[in-house]
UniProtKB/TrEMBL annotation:
Organism name: Haladaptatus pallidirubidus
Keywords: Hydrolase, Metal-binding, Metalloprotease, Protease, Zinc
Entry keyword Repressor: no
Protein name in UniProt: Desampylase
SUPFAM superfamilies associated with the record: JAB1/MPN domain
Gene Ontology biological process terms, A to Z: proteolysis
Length: 135
């Protein structure tokens, strides 16, 4: 289970809406306990060649954000990105690019009348859906 506050939810949805038509992306900070809690979000620049359909975080920026999260005494709990036109699940590209086993991958889809925020954990071979609990 992944627990997030209304503030984190609103931040993710707002960034996704403002970033259209490109995908937005970043890292999630919090506690990797059970359940995993997202306490903060860190936006990163999407440096993908086709940002409308893909996302990529520059390795140096990702490392700097990870160090900042750890310096704050938090855990890196996962990553987030948006799908401005769907789907409401990880794409084949997302699965091909996933590398962090056991971490949450949050997707904000703007495909329908209302935003959809879902999360999946990467097993090293596939994404497994996880329950998102909004506090």
């Amino acid at each position: 289970m992944l627990v997030l506050s209304r503030e984190v939810y609103d931040t993710l949805v707002s960034r996704a809406r403002r970033g259209r038509p490109a995908e937005i992306c970043g890292l999630l900070a919090g506690a990797r306990d059970s359940p995993t809690r997202i306490e903060d979000t860190f936006q990163a620049e999407n440096v993908a060649e086709t940002p409308e359909t893909n996302y990529e975080i520059h390795p140096e920026e990702q490392l700097a954000i990870m160090e900042e999260i750890e310096d704050r005494g938090q855990d890196v709990v996962g990553f987030y990105h948006s799908h401005p036109a769907g789907p409401d699940r990880p794409s084949e590209t997302d699965a091909a690019d996933a590398t962090w086993d056991g971490y949450s991958y949050v997707i904000v889809s703007l495909n329908g009348a209302y935003p959809f925020v879902g999360s999946w954990r990467w097993t090293g071979e596939a994404f497994e859906p996880e329950t998102v609990h909004l506090e």
